[in-house]
């Protein structure tokens, strides 16, 4: 048993190092050329944030494995050699909250500061914004914790008489609730007690748990919106991208015509950008300026998509045929991944309805699947469990990107290979961190049977769902219902409009 615990610690260390290296790889390959050899502090924050986010998702499967480490202990104290998961959970989510509400905003304010100012002035300006935010957040947390930072557990008082053991147990069945007969029949309090035997046991939650709980609520709002949309648009977006793919290479004359139109559009956007930059220098950064800036960002993003589509339809260079073949294979890969993703999305939605929304649950569904996979091979169920949790996080990111293109109040920060600025990186890392808390809470609830008796269950199950003022959101499944409704609406949207080509709207349209 001690060897198994040591192996678990070694695996945790190796996985942490691999995740850190992978995030450095992502940063190097996604960063914009303008950010090379500079902006080191934002880059450090990006790598740290991504590492915390991915490790927090992987910690739930680790928590399950950690539970197994002392499940069959044969000597006292074996469980003391396992990982201190509750302390690790609280530590990683306190770090998560600090990154989301303080460190990432500071890095963004510093990065987006006026480049003409000195480093000291930019740091001072960013620090002022962060200190103001910290004061407001601290006041809100302190007031809420002082007023309603308590946990209300509903308990039932049970009492029963005793009876002597019978000589013959053959007459008893698994469905028999009470022992005794005739006048010696013993009342089973657990089955016949009335509501008057229930009472509420109140205790104050620890401050770290309360911070995690409030961060989870904020993340759950975003999760129910972005996750509900993303669970549908992630696979369907890939499938309909294959359906709308370019069927053949266009002619040179068509390419010149479309490229000329894109050139005109690019010149118009450059004039608009110069005008907005001039307004910024003159100090006219009002509401209208911010609105026009967001509109310009959206137009630039759409223009880049059009340029990419045109390059796909008319590959150039000495290896044009190879480029076209890779494009075709890329769309086929999207189709295959879309089909697999659709299966996973349907499984997720079915599991939420069957296990969470119907009371009592019709089946434990995916919980049983993971348990059976564990029976086949010890880590197979844990790996499948980790995959479903990580898929949910990717769905949140996909939903945020989709809504960001359609809602004017959401700033667009697209992630692009070799062309992602640090402010976009920081924004997306903050979103991932904030939603990762809710993904873990959601997974610990959805897979409560598989993840039972874990530290995550204690924090995100019993404590969080019993916090005063918050517990009703979980009692009535508010987030789960919103998730399912938005997922259904997104499926309908894609079924009705996803297969169509986009109509002209002031942007480039593929030629037929």
Automatic annotation (TrEMBL):
UniProt-recorded name of the protein: LMBR1 integral membrane family protein
Main localization of the protein described in the UniProt heading: membrane
InterPro entries, per database record: LMBR1-like_membr_prot
Annotated TM spans: 6-28, 40-60, 90-111, 126-148, 210-243, 335-358, 378-405, 425-450, 478-497
Keyword Transcription regulation among UniProt keywords: no
Keyword Translocase recorded: no
Listed GO CC annotations: membrane
Highest taxon of the lineage: Eukaryota
Alphabetized UniProt keyword annotations: Coiled coil, Membrane, Transmembrane, Transmembrane helix
Localization (cell): Membrane
Organism: Heracleum sosnowskyi
Coiled-coil regions listed: 259-313
Topology with respect to the bilayer: Multi-pass membrane protein
């Amino acid at each position: 048993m001690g060897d198994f615990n040591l192996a678990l610690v070694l695996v945790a260390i190796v996985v942490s190092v691999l995740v850190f290296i992978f995030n450095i790889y992502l940063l190097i390959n996604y960063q914009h050329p303008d950010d090379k050899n500079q902006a080191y502090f934002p880059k450090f924050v990006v790598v740290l944030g991504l590492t915390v986010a991915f490790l927090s998702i992987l910690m739930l499967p680790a928590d399950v494995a950690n539970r197994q480490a002392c499940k069959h202990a044969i000597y006292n104290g074996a469980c003391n050699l396992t990982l201190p998961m509750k302390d690790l959970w609280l530590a990683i989510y306190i770090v998560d909250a600090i990154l989301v509400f303080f460190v990432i905003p500071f890095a963004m304010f510093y990065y987006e500061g006026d480049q003409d100012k000195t480093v000291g002035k930019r740091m001072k300006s960013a620090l002022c914004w962060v200190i103001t935010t910290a004061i407001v957040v601290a006041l809100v947390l302190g007031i809420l914790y002082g007023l309603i930072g308590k946990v209300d557990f509903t308990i039932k008082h049970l009492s029963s008489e005793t009876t002597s053991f019978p000589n013959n147990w053959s007459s008893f069945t698994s469905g028999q609730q009470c022992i005794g007969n005739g006048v010696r029949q013993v009342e089973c309090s657990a089955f016949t007690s009335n509501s008057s035997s229930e009472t509420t046991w109140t205790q104050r939650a620890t401050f770290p748990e309360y911070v995690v709980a409030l961060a989870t609520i904020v993340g759950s709002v975003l999760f129910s919106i972005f996750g509900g949309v993303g669970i549908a648009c992630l696979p369907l977006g890939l499938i309909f991208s294959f359906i709308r793919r370019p069927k053949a290479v266009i002619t040179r004359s068509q390419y010149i015509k479309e490229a000329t139109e894109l050139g005109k559009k690019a010149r118009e956007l450059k004039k608009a950008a110069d005008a907005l930059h001039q307004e910024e220098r003159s100090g006219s950064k009002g509401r209208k300026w911010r609105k026009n800036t967001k509109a310009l960002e959206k137009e630039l993003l759409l223009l880049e998509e059009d340029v990419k589509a045109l390059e796909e339809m008319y590959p150039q260079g000495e290896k044009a045929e190879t480029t076209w073949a890779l494009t075709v294979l890329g769309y086929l890969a999207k189709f295959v991944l879309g089909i697999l993703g659709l299966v996973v999305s349907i499984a997720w939605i079915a599991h939420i309805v069957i296990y969470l929304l119907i009371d009592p649950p019709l089946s434990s569904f995916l919980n049983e699947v993971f348990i059976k996979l564990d029976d086949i091979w010890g880590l197979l169920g844990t790996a499948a469990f980790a995959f479903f949790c990580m898929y949910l996080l990717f769905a949140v990111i996909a939903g945020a990107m989709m809504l960001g293109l359609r809602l004017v109040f959401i700033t667009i920060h697209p992630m692009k290979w070799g062309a992602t600025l640090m402010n976009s990186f920081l924004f997306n890392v903050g979103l991932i961190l904030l939603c990762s808390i809710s993904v873990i809470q959601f997974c610990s609830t959805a897979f409560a049977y598989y993840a039972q008796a874990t530290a995550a269950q204690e924090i995100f199950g019993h404590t969080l769902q019993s916090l005063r003022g918050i517990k009703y959101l979980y009692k009535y499944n508010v987030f789960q219902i919103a998730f399912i409704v938005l997922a259904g609406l997104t499926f309908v949207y894609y079924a009705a409009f996803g297969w169509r080509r986009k109509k002209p709207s002031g942007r480039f349209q593929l030629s037929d």
